[in-house]
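Dear support,

We are seeing what looks like truncated structure output for some complexes. This example has two components. We would appreciate it if you could run it in full and send us the complete token output so we can diff it against ours.
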Amino acid sequence: MFVSRSMTRKVITIDKEADIFEAQAKMAKNSIRHLPVVDKNNFLIGIITDRSIRTALPYDLFKNPADQDARKKISDLKIKDIMTKEPITISPMYTIQDALLLIQEKKVGAFPVVDDKGKLTGILSVRDLLRAFTNVLGIGEPGTLLCVLVEEKVGQLKKIVDAVTKENISFGSVLVARYWDKNKRAVFLYLLTLNVSRVKKKMEELGFEILNPMEWYLDQLPQST
Amino acid sequence: MKKTGILYDKRFLLHDTGPYHPEMAARLEAIMQGIKSGGLLEKLISVSAKPADLKWIETIHEPDYIQKFKEVCLSGCREFESADNQICYDTYEAARLAAGGVLEAVDMVMEGKIDNAFCAVRPPGHHAESGQSMGFCYFNNVAIAARVLQRKWDIKKILIIDFDVHHGNGTQHLFEEDPFVYYFSTHQHPSFAFPGTGREFEKGRLAGLGFTKNCPLLPGQGDKELKKIYKTELFPLFADFKPEFVLLSTGFDAHIDDVMSDLKFSSDCFEWIIKEIIKQANQYANGRIISVLEGGYSLERLPELAKTHAAALLDG
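Here is the complete output from our reference environment:
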């Protein structure tokens, strides 16, 4: 659950004296959008993003990336001139949940991860968070997703788990989500099997509703007007 | 009228999946009963099942996997790699016979003894990966047939059409880098169905990029959507790719009465599918089609579905 487990450890960084083109090439080569800027002792001093580069580039270079005059002019500009100083950082002991909430609030694409002295130890990007979430959903493994609607009261999940276990089926993941009806919960079962027809029948016998897949909703429910 | 082969062998019934398993021997009995009651059996040419030569199975499956599968079956264990895969002592032999029977059908088509064939086999194959069983499948019958067509019969371009309601992950992965084997699949959308692959953006890899096409259907969709996909995607593909041979992964589980899916194909739609594929294959592939059974679990519907399927192949 800690950021240290999900972050990218081999961080591609850039020197503050480097020029924009070097940063651009590094991003393109590695398919990344963030380059932490570090000093020679690996202390974080800033971050450069593909957006900060684009903002710094003159129109001439957009029109013609090979325009030598324009390239020469812009090559005087150093990373230190355009980088974001004191970027928002997180600690490797932040949890994934901390990072998810913070990345939404701060509207950034990645957090440099620094130790308590300020040394860069990793980077956590939206991509790392997505990978972790994909993993939580369990969709890397073959299986079938079902959505069971249950009343919001203690003991419902036990009935479901017992019924599925009796069918000798393993769970890939279980998610409990809010539902339109405040007194109900939508339970998403990712079952590692092709054969869910008997489970579906059993759920209905237990009095649960199998929700029509076209009505599944995993995001926040929209405000009713 | 075409010379149509039928592959069926009582030994396919020996693969015993235990009580309550949907992939049961009664499926094949229902299929054969439908074909017999339609008076088709006399018109069909029998294709005999022989155990597939290991050298051909090994063009698709890892030797270690084949050996492990054999040993687990012969040990008397009732489960292989996952609880979905219920097996028995005879499963290995049945799987070899199924693959071997399909290869016999391939040879007969290539030797001109038959024009096309329907292979009523079990266990099915399209989920089986190179080194992994999955979703009731052990040997990937269609994939092995494609390899034999390539290596023994020097067929250059093969089109695999998979209309089972589940995505044929095994077949796709085995040929995703091969530009000479086109994999085309319609299936229930992977976010709503096993095995969770077969998304629209899976289009093949490296040299095979652009030679895999996945057309997922949403829960509740049926004839109208399927026909639209065939008209706009599959038929133009015949004209572009010009396959010399067509292999079908035939699953009847997208039928409205099949409890294994949320798609709603009518019986007529399945007849339309095979008739339209035959038309295209006649134009581009010399009519060479081998249809291999994958899923389809409604014992009430399988007789009529198999009957119309075989009748269409005969009518050619």
